[in-house]
Amino acid sequence: DLYRKVFVFRKDPSDAYVVLRARLEQPLHNFTVCLRSYTDLSRPHSLFSYATKAQDNEILLFKPKPEEYRFYVGGKFVTFRVPEGRRDWEHVCASWESATGIAEFWLNGKPWPRKGLQKGYTVAATAAILLGQEQDSFGGGFDFYNSFSGELTDVYLWDTGLSPDKMRAAFLSLRLPPALLAWKSLSYEVKGDVVVKPRLRE
């Protein structure tokens, strides 16, 4: 149980990462991924990387610069332009549904204009899921200048699109529906220089 704890990625650039284990029984036609990050990086960095053997950017949350997030599904991406952070925690949720190809992006509990991405696509279930590095091959192929440095917490992955109420609940750390990956019952393995510490403030 990582309640009120964070992963601290101490070095920049870094070869460190965290492997997450999810119980995925079938491919995903809808999903939502949420996490909270705290960093002073201004260079590109990867937050959440879900790779399959066929597609290294099957699901990717990537921040190329402080005022931009990229959300990948099946190797294609949409860009969400955001105000440059005030060097504070940023909570992001990204959701996608195959039937409409609608990609949603929420920052700090607020929705951005929806975009179209990969209508009719299916996300494969056999995946390497990593925090802190961007995979260019299954479980590896890292560019250390895309590595994350800072603090990560509240990581979740659901096999549904969350309702607006639940998106806000994720931001506020309220009760959430059962998830494929849940911060409060996370199965993970640390690789390299990552330390689990209590959160400094709420």
Verbal overview:
Pfam families: Pentaxin. Belongs to the pentraxin family. One of its GO terms (molecular function) is metal ion binding. Residues 3-202 form the Pentraxin (PTX) domain. The chain is mainly β. The protein has a single domain (5-198), classed as Jelly Rolls (Sandwich), CATH 2.60.120. It is 4% helix and 42% strand. The chain contains 1 helix and 15 strands; from the N terminus they run βββββββββββββαββ. A hairpin with a 4-residue loop joins β8 (90-97) and β9. The two termini are 17 Å apart. 39% of the residues are buried. The model has no long low-confidence stretch (mean pLDDT 96).
Helix percent band? under 10%
Class computed from helices, strands and strand pairing: mainly beta
From N to C, what is the helix and strand string? Answer: EEEEEEEEEEEEEHEE
Total number of domains: 1
Overall number of strands? 15
Uncertain segments: none
Distance between termini?
A: 17 Å
Gross morphology is globular
Number of helices: 1
The main sheet comes to: 8 strands, antiparallel
Using the coordinates above, name the CATH class. Mainly Beta
What is the gyration radius calculated from CA atoms?
Answer: 15 Å
Mean pLDDT: 96
CATH fold title: Jelly Rolls
Task: Indicate the CATH architecture.
Answer: Sandwich
The fraction of residues in strands falls at 35-45%
Essential attributes:
202 residues; mainly beta; Jelly Rolls; seven-stranded antiparallel beta sheet; secreted; metal-binding
Topology:
Layout (H helix, E strand, L loop, with lengths): L4 E5 L7 E4 L9 E9 L6 E7 L7 E7 L2 E6 L2 E6 L8 E8 L4 E6 L2 E2 L3 E2 L11 E4 L18 E9 L5 H8 L16 E4 L2 E5 L4
Antiparallel strand pairs: 1-13, 1-15, 2-12, 2-14, 3-8, 3-13, 4-5, 4-12, 5-6, 6-7, 8-9, 9-10, 9-11
